[in-house]
Amino acid sequence: MTVTSALKVENLHKSFGNHEVIKGVSLEAQKGDVIAILGASGAGKSTFLRCINLLETPNSGDVYLAGEKMRMKQNRHGETIPEDIRQVERMRTRLAMVFQGFNLWSHMTVMENILEGPLYVQKIAKAEAVEKAEALLEKVGLSDRVDYYPAHLSGGQQQRVAIARALAMDPDVMLFDEPTSALDPELVGEVLAVMRDLAEEGRTMLVVTHEMGFARDVSSKTVFLHKGEICEEGSPAKLFTKPATDQFKAFLARIN
């Protein structure tokens, strides 16, 4: 019996002008995998993540979500574009993204931010969406902040709202783009605690991060990107105790 991957990326390439940022990266996540993506600044980590849900359009390569291929085509200028924008929109609802800069709507309350997707994209009944949003805010420890606006929350609280907003769409896979790097050090722990809980629940997660403790203790697989290519990958126990490449050894030496 063949097991369909939760997410599969094959030979992804992305260039900006003449600068190739992603050079044929392939990656596969099974349901419940937590994959930590590490690398120095400029390694292509965030670009890779953004290519998965087409916030950046890859030049070539394939993305499969639960076996469904994101269909792409060439336009008359030879550029790669989505074949069916409705497919992209539908698949994006299953690929929730949590951004470094929170990306909450500043004119909306916490509750309104979380309800936006379920009400207007998924067309869920309001009473059901509100009940679910309240449960998610309880999960991330912010049930007392329902009517607050983002400007009145700490960075850690904003990021926890962003996670609740992502969860409200019932995604198959969650993509985290350096979710703690914009936070003051004392606020990092509260966001990582929520992410640890999600991992324990069996959520499928790809996490671009500089938090080595999270990568070492929570991820089921660690990937090290170097200059747009996967330089090393495997279990965190193996990578962190016996790094095989000079590049990863040097990276660990810099951050420790």
What is the H-and-E element order? EEEHEEEEHEHHHEHEHEEHH
Largest sheet: 6 strands, mixed
- What shape does the CA trace take? globular
Query: What is the CA–CA distance across the termini?
Result: 43 Å
By DSSP (H or I, 4+ residues per run), the number of helices equals: 9
Average pLDDT level: 94
Beta-strand content estimate: 25-35%
Overall structural class, as computed from helix and strand content, comes to: alpha/beta
Tell me the number of strands: 12
Helix content: 25-40%
Uncertain ranges: none
Strand order of the largest sheet: 8-9-10-3-11-12
Q: Could you tell me the radius of gyration in angstroms?
A: 18 Å
Which helices and strands occur, and which strands form pairs?
Elements: E1 7-16, E2 19-29, E3 34-38, H1 45-52, E4 60-65, E5 68-69, E6 72-74, E7 80-82, H2 85-94, E8 95-98, H3 110-120, H4 126-139, H5 155-167, E9 173-177, H6 185-201, E10 205-208, H7 212-217, E11 221-226, E12 229-234, H8 236-241, H9 246-255
Parallel strand pairs: 3-10, 3-11, 8-9, 9-10
Antiparallel strand pairs: 1-2, 1-4, 4-5, 6-7, 11-12
